[in-house]
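Re-run with default settings, no changes from the original entry. Doing this only to confirm the output is reproducible before filing.
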Amino acid sequence: MGFPESDSQAQSFIAAFRDGLQKLGWMEGRNIRIDARWPGFDAESRQRFAKELIALQPDLILSHTTPTTAALLQQTRTIPIVFATVTDPVGSGIVPSLARPGGNVTGFTLVEPTMAAKWVELLKEIAPRVNRVAMLLKPTDLPVQAPTKFELVINLKTAKELGLTVTRDFLLIADGVIE
């Protein structure tokens, strides 16, 4: 997080993120580990905490602000980094373009952290046997997203080929179904 630990809004983001993960079956200490750092607005702390996180060799790093993401990118070009609220990722030098961010970083502009938990929830709903989520191919092929509309479309043929069971309840919440 790019905020001080005492920041109540930042604490509510983290709490909502953890709560969302827990509702999806992701339990800290059981099937997920979350290591948070709170550098506040201090550049030295950001650099120190970025080094600490990289030393832990996580599978993925979720970053919250532009300065925090920049500090992490100074420390690693291999561990995937997903940012949540970088306002201008191209202008700040985080990515060369939104469509092809390159390197080990991608993310979302101005998206609440609870949205990431919602996406994991949808994945868990359609693929309940999934217990580990990882990034495919490389972040350079995943464009930076700036959502304007959210739709859930289910491709029944693909789901069947993947051996996934699509429940009636799940179909009812879908915005569209492809036969």
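The mean pLDDT is 82. The chain is about 35% helix and 10% strand.
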